[in-house]
Automatic annotation (TrEMBL):
It catalyses: S-ubiquitinyl-[E2 ubiquitin-conjugating enzyme]-L-cysteine + [acceptor protein]-L-lysine = [E2 ubiquitin-conjugating enzyme]-L-cysteine + N(6)-ubiquitinyl-[acceptor protein]-L-lysine. It is an enzyme of class 2 (transferase). This is RING-type E3 ubiquitin transferase. Keywords: Metal-binding, Transferase, Ubl conjugation pathway, Zinc, Zinc-finger. Pfam families: zf-RING_UBOX. It comes from Salvia splendens. The lineage of its organism: Eukaryota, Viridiplantae, Streptophyta, Embryophyta, Tracheophyta. Pathway: Protein modification; protein ubiquitination. Residues 223-272 form the RING-type domain.
Length: 327
Protein backbone atom coordinates (compact mmCIF):
# COMPACT_ATOMS: atom_id res chain seq x y z
CA UNK A 1 0.00 0.00 0.00
CA UNK A 2 1.34 3.43 -0.93
CA UNK A 3 2.01 5.79 1.93
CA UNK A 4 -0.50 8.38 0.68
CA UNK A 5 -3.33 5.86 0.93
CA UNK A 6 -2.09 4.61 4.28
CA UNK A 7 -1.96 8.17 5.59
CA UNK A 8 -5.46 8.98 4.34
CA UNK A 9 -6.84 5.85 6.00
CA UNK A 10 -5.13 6.72 9.28
CA UNK A 11 -6.51 10.28 9.30
CA UNK A 12 -9.96 9.01 8.31
CA UNK A 13 -9.90 6.61 11.27
CA UNK A 14 -9.13 9.60 13.52
CA UNK A 15 -12.04 11.58 12.06
CA UNK A 16 -14.03 11.82 15.29
CA UNK A 17 -11.06 13.40 17.05
CA UNK A 18 -10.72 16.06 14.30
CA UNK A 19 -6.93 15.96 14.34
CA UNK A 20 -5.00 18.49 12.23
CA UNK A 21 -2.90 16.85 9.53
CA UNK A 22 -1.03 17.25 6.27
CA UNK A 23 -3.29 17.70 3.22
CA UNK A 24 -1.37 15.04 1.32
CA UNK A 25 -3.76 14.75 -1.64
CA UNK A 26 -4.23 18.51 -1.88
CA UNK A 27 -0.48 19.16 -1.96
CA UNK A 28 0.04 16.44 -4.58
CA UNK A 29 -2.65 18.08 -6.76
CA UNK A 30 -0.84 21.40 -6.41
CA UNK A 31 2.34 19.76 -7.68
CA UNK A 32 0.52 18.22 -10.61
CA UNK A 33 -0.84 21.62 -11.63
CA UNK A 34 2.65 23.05 -11.87
CA UNK A 35 3.20 23.77 -15.56
CA UNK A 36 6.91 24.44 -15.16
CA UNK A 37 8.00 20.84 -14.66
CA UNK A 38 11.13 20.17 -16.76
CA UNK A 39 10.86 16.89 -18.71
CA UNK A 40 13.25 14.76 -20.72
CA UNK A 41 16.32 16.66 -19.57
CA UNK A 42 19.83 15.64 -20.46
CA UNK A 43 22.47 15.18 -17.76
CA UNK A 44 24.12 18.58 -18.30
CA UNK A 45 20.86 20.49 -17.96
CA UNK A 46 19.81 18.43 -14.95
CA UNK A 47 23.10 19.27 -13.20
CA UNK A 48 22.55 22.94 -13.94
CA UNK A 49 19.02 22.86 -12.53
CA UNK A 50 20.23 21.22 -9.33
CA UNK A 51 22.38 24.27 -8.65
CA UNK A 52 19.50 26.75 -9.01
CA UNK A 53 16.05 27.40 -7.66
CA UNK A 54 12.87 26.37 -9.40
CA UNK A 55 11.90 28.14 -12.66
CA UNK A 56 10.66 31.69 -12.28
CA UNK A 57 6.90 32.31 -12.16
CA UNK A 58 6.25 28.76 -11.01
CA UNK A 59 2.76 28.74 -9.47
CA UNK A 60 3.95 26.25 -6.85
CA UNK A 61 6.93 28.33 -5.76
CA UNK A 62 5.01 31.61 -5.90
CA UNK A 63 3.13 30.95 -2.70
CA UNK A 64 0.77 27.99 -3.07
CA UNK A 65 2.62 24.89 -1.94
CA UNK A 66 4.90 26.07 0.85
CA UNK A 67 2.45 28.38 2.67
CA UNK A 68 -0.13 25.56 2.76
CA UNK A 69 2.40 23.08 4.09
CA UNK A 70 3.72 25.61 6.64
CA UNK A 71 0.24 26.22 8.02
CA UNK A 72 -0.46 22.50 8.28
CA UNK A 73 2.88 21.75 9.95
CA UNK A 74 2.28 24.49 12.53
CA UNK A 75 -1.16 23.07 13.34
CA UNK A 76 0.18 19.52 13.71
CA UNK A 77 3.08 20.51 15.99
CA UNK A 78 0.89 22.81 18.09
CA UNK A 79 -1.67 20.06 18.63
CA UNK A 80 0.97 17.44 19.46
CA UNK A 81 2.79 19.69 21.95
CA UNK A 82 -0.43 20.66 23.73
CA UNK A 83 -1.64 17.06 24.05
CA UNK A 84 1.76 15.73 25.14
CA UNK A 85 2.07 18.50 27.74
CA UNK A 86 -1.36 17.65 29.17
CA UNK A 87 -0.58 13.93 29.29
CA UNK A 88 2.74 14.42 31.07
CA UNK A 89 1.25 16.93 33.51
CA UNK A 90 -1.31 14.30 34.43
CA UNK A 91 1.39 11.70 34.99
CA UNK A 92 3.60 13.98 37.11
CA UNK A 93 0.90 15.84 39.04
CA UNK A 94 -0.16 14.90 42.56
CA UNK A 95 -2.83 15.59 45.14
CA UNK A 96 -5.73 17.88 44.26
CA UNK A 97 -4.05 18.96 41.04
CA UNK A 98 -4.04 15.38 39.74
CA UNK A 99 -7.68 14.85 40.71
CA UNK A 100 -8.71 18.06 38.94
CA UNK A 101 -6.95 17.01 35.75
CA UNK A 102 -8.48 13.55 35.84
CA UNK A 103 -12.03 14.85 36.31
CA UNK A 104 -11.59 17.46 33.61
CA UNK A 105 -10.25 14.95 31.09
CA UNK A 106 -12.66 12.19 32.24
CA UNK A 107 -9.80 9.74 32.57
CA UNK A 108 -9.24 7.07 35.19
CA UNK A 109 -5.56 7.86 35.48
CA UNK A 110 -4.20 4.30 35.36
CA UNK A 111 -0.95 3.25 33.66
CA UNK A 112 -2.67 1.45 30.78
CA UNK A 113 -4.77 4.49 29.91
CA UNK A 114 -1.75 6.80 29.98
CA UNK A 115 0.30 4.38 27.88
CA UNK A 116 -2.42 4.06 25.24
CA UNK A 117 -2.83 7.82 24.93
CA UNK A 118 0.94 8.24 24.70
CA UNK A 119 1.15 5.58 21.98
CA UNK A 120 -1.56 7.33 19.97
CA UNK A 121 0.29 10.62 20.27
CA UNK A 122 3.57 9.10 19.13
CA UNK A 123 1.91 7.40 16.15
CA UNK A 124 0.30 10.71 15.19
CA UNK A 125 3.62 12.56 15.40
CA UNK A 126 5.58 9.98 13.41
CA UNK A 127 3.10 9.46 10.59
CA UNK A 128 2.78 13.22 10.08
CA UNK A 129 6.58 13.62 10.13
CA UNK A 130 6.85 10.97 7.41
CA UNK A 131 4.09 12.65 5.38
CA UNK A 132 5.94 15.97 5.50
CA UNK A 133 9.22 14.32 4.53
CA UNK A 134 7.67 12.48 1.56
CA UNK A 135 5.79 15.47 0.14
CA UNK A 136 8.95 17.62 0.28
CA UNK A 137 10.93 14.84 -1.40
CA UNK A 138 8.31 14.70 -4.16
CA UNK A 139 8.52 18.48 -4.58
CA UNK A 140 12.28 18.28 -5.15
CA UNK A 141 11.88 15.38 -7.56
CA UNK A 142 9.35 17.22 -9.70
CA UNK A 143 11.25 20.50 -9.76
CA UNK A 144 14.79 19.10 -9.89
CA UNK A 145 15.60 21.37 -6.99
CA UNK A 146 16.66 21.35 -3.35
CA UNK A 147 14.05 23.81 -2.15
CA UNK A 148 12.18 21.07 -0.31
CA UNK A 149 15.22 20.36 1.83
CA UNK A 150 15.76 24.09 2.32
CA UNK A 151 12.16 24.41 3.50
CA UNK A 152 12.76 21.58 5.98
CA UNK A 153 15.67 23.55 7.44
CA UNK A 154 13.48 26.65 7.66
CA UNK A 155 10.78 24.64 9.42
CA UNK A 156 13.36 23.53 11.97
CA UNK A 157 14.40 27.16 12.57
CA UNK A 158 10.72 28.06 13.05
CA UNK A 159 10.40 25.22 15.60
CA UNK A 160 7.72 23.32 13.66
CA UNK A 161 9.75 20.16 12.95
CA UNK A 162 7.78 17.62 14.96
CA UNK A 163 10.62 15.12 15.47
CA UNK A 164 12.62 17.93 17.13
CA UNK A 165 9.88 18.65 19.67
CA UNK A 166 11.07 18.37 23.29
CA UNK A 167 7.73 16.78 24.12
CA UNK A 168 8.60 13.79 21.94
CA UNK A 169 11.77 13.34 23.98
CA UNK A 170 9.68 13.59 27.14
CA UNK A 171 7.29 10.92 25.85
CA UNK A 172 10.23 8.60 25.20
CA UNK A 173 11.47 9.10 28.76
CA UNK A 174 7.89 8.73 30.04
CA UNK A 175 7.60 5.36 28.32
CA UNK A 176 10.86 4.04 29.79
CA UNK A 177 9.95 5.31 33.27
CA UNK A 178 6.50 3.77 33.09
CA UNK A 179 7.96 0.48 31.90
CA UNK A 180 10.47 0.45 34.76
CA UNK A 181 8.04 1.47 37.52
CA UNK A 182 5.27 -0.93 36.52
CA UNK A 183 6.89 -3.79 34.63
CA UNK A 184 3.99 -6.17 35.25
CA UNK A 185 1.32 -3.99 33.64
CA UNK A 186 3.65 -2.86 30.87
CA UNK A 187 3.92 -6.44 29.62
CA UNK A 188 0.19 -6.46 29.02
CA UNK A 189 0.07 -3.02 27.40
CA UNK A 190 1.19 -1.80 24.01
CA UNK A 191 4.56 -0.09 24.04
CA UNK A 192 4.82 3.49 22.87
CA UNK A 193 7.91 2.76 20.82
CA UNK A 194 9.57 -0.27 19.29
CA UNK A 195 13.15 -0.55 20.42
CA UNK A 196 13.15 2.59 22.56
CA UNK A 197 15.94 2.58 25.14
CA UNK A 198 18.50 4.63 27.03
CA UNK A 199 22.02 3.76 25.88
CA UNK A 200 25.23 4.41 27.80
CA UNK A 201 28.36 4.66 25.66
CA UNK A 202 31.49 5.34 27.71
CA UNK A 203 29.26 6.81 30.40
CA UNK A 204 27.55 9.17 27.93
CA UNK A 205 23.78 8.55 27.73
CA UNK A 206 21.58 8.89 24.68
CA UNK A 207 17.95 8.12 23.88
CA UNK A 208 17.65 5.80 20.90
CA UNK A 209 14.44 4.75 19.21
CA UNK A 210 13.82 2.93 15.94
CA UNK A 211 10.48 3.79 14.37
CA UNK A 212 8.68 2.53 11.33
CA UNK A 213 9.47 3.59 7.75
CA UNK A 214 13.19 3.93 8.50
CA UNK A 215 12.70 6.80 10.96
CA UNK A 216 15.27 6.67 13.74
CA UNK A 217 15.70 9.01 16.65
CA UNK A 218 19.02 9.30 18.44
CA UNK A 219 19.09 12.06 21.06
CA UNK A 220 22.36 12.92 22.78
CA UNK A 221 21.86 13.63 26.48
CA UNK A 222 25.15 15.47 27.05
CA UNK A 223 25.06 19.16 27.92
CA UNK A 224 27.03 21.15 25.35
CA UNK A 225 28.10 23.67 28.00
CA UNK A 226 29.45 21.57 30.87
CA UNK A 227 30.02 18.48 28.67
CA UNK A 228 28.42 16.29 31.35
CA UNK A 229 25.22 14.27 31.41
CA UNK A 230 22.18 16.52 31.58
CA UNK A 231 21.06 17.40 35.09
CA UNK A 232 17.68 19.06 35.61
CA UNK A 233 17.41 19.30 31.80
CA UNK A 234 15.65 22.13 30.03
CA UNK A 235 14.83 22.56 26.35
CA UNK A 236 14.99 26.02 24.78
CA UNK A 237 12.70 27.25 22.02
CA UNK A 238 15.27 26.19 19.40
CA UNK A 239 15.07 22.58 20.64
CA UNK A 240 18.55 22.35 22.17
CA UNK A 241 18.81 20.86 25.66
CA UNK A 242 21.04 21.97 28.54
CA UNK A 243 21.34 21.57 32.28
CA UNK A 244 19.12 24.22 33.83
CA UNK A 245 21.95 25.87 35.74
CA UNK A 246 24.16 25.84 32.61
CA UNK A 247 21.40 27.47 30.58
CA UNK A 248 21.09 30.17 33.24
CA UNK A 249 24.83 30.87 33.01
CA UNK A 250 24.65 31.06 29.21
CA UNK A 251 21.73 33.49 29.49
CA UNK A 252 23.59 35.61 32.09
CA UNK A 253 20.87 35.17 34.73
CA UNK A 254 20.91 33.56 38.15
CA UNK A 255 18.89 30.48 39.09
CA UNK A 256 16.90 32.74 41.42
CA UNK A 257 15.69 34.93 38.54
CA UNK A 258 15.26 32.00 36.15
CA UNK A 259 15.53 31.72 32.37
CA UNK A 260 12.46 33.85 31.71
CA UNK A 261 14.41 36.82 33.05
CA UNK A 262 16.94 36.51 30.20
CA UNK A 263 17.09 39.42 27.77
CA UNK A 264 15.92 38.95 24.18
CA UNK A 265 19.41 39.32 22.72
CA UNK A 266 20.79 36.34 24.65
CA UNK A 267 21.59 33.49 22.24
CA UNK A 268 21.56 29.72 22.37
CA UNK A 269 25.01 28.35 23.14
CA UNK A 270 24.82 25.98 20.14
CA UNK A 271 22.85 27.55 17.27
CA UNK A 272 23.29 31.20 18.39
CA UNK A 273 19.60 31.89 17.85
CA UNK A 274 18.08 34.77 19.81
CA UNK A 275 14.86 34.88 21.86
CA UNK A 276 15.06 31.20 22.80
CA UNK A 277 14.78 31.64 26.58
CA UNK A 278 11.24 32.97 26.60
CA UNK A 279 9.43 29.61 26.91
CA UNK A 280 11.83 26.95 28.21
CA UNK A 281 10.50 23.43 28.76
CA UNK A 282 11.60 21.63 31.93
CA UNK A 283 12.11 17.97 30.98
CA UNK A 284 10.97 16.34 34.20
CA UNK A 285 10.45 12.83 32.82
CA UNK A 286 13.94 12.88 31.35
CA UNK A 287 15.33 14.06 34.68
CA UNK A 288 13.63 11.12 36.44
CA UNK A 289 15.02 8.70 33.84
CA UNK A 290 18.59 9.94 34.24
CA UNK A 291 18.28 9.88 38.03
CA UNK A 292 17.29 6.21 37.88
CA UNK A 293 19.86 5.25 35.24
CA UNK A 294 22.89 7.12 36.61
CA UNK A 295 22.39 7.14 40.41
CA UNK A 296 26.03 7.72 41.38
CA UNK A 297 26.54 10.58 38.94
CA UNK A 298 23.17 12.06 39.88
CA UNK A 299 24.00 12.03 43.62
CA UNK A 300 27.35 13.76 43.08
CA UNK A 301 25.91 16.31 40.68
CA UNK A 302 23.05 17.03 43.06
CA UNK A 303 25.50 17.99 45.81
CA UNK A 304 27.43 20.27 43.45
CA UNK A 305 24.22 21.85 42.15
CA UNK A 306 22.98 22.45 45.68
CA UNK A 307 26.19 24.28 46.61
CA UNK A 308 25.98 26.42 43.46
CA UNK A 309 22.32 27.26 44.03
CA UNK A 310 22.96 28.24 47.65
CA UNK A 311 25.86 30.42 46.52
CA UNK A 312 23.81 32.18 43.83
CA UNK A 313 20.85 32.63 46.17
CA UNK A 314 23.09 34.19 48.82
CA UNK A 315 24.68 36.56 46.29
CA UNK A 316 21.25 37.51 44.95
CA UNK A 317 19.82 38.50 48.33
CA UNK A 318 23.00 40.28 49.35
CA UNK A 319 22.75 42.42 46.23
CA UNK A 320 19.05 43.07 46.92
CA UNK A 321 19.88 44.16 50.48
CA UNK A 322 22.56 46.55 49.19
CA UNK A 323 20.08 48.06 46.75
CA UNK A 324 17.48 48.44 49.48
CA UNK A 325 19.84 50.07 51.97
CA UNK A 326 21.57 52.17 49.31
CA UNK A 327 25.03 50.86 50.13
Amino acid sequence: MKFCKKYEEYMKAQGKKKLPGVGFKKLKKILKRCTKQPRHLDAALLTDLNNHTCPQHCSVCDGTFFPSLLEEMSAVVGFFNARARRLLQMHLSSGLSRCAIWFKAKLKGNHIKLTQEGRDLVTYAIINAIAMRKILKKYDKIHYSKQGQAFKSQAHSKHIEILQSPWLCELMAFHINLRASNSTSSRNSTALFEGCSLLLNDGKPSLCCELFDSVKLDIDLTCAICLETLFDPVSLACGHMFCYICACKAASVSVVDGLKAASHDQKCAICREERVYEAPVRLEELHILLRRSCPEYWAERRKAEKRERVKQTKEHWESQCRLFTGI
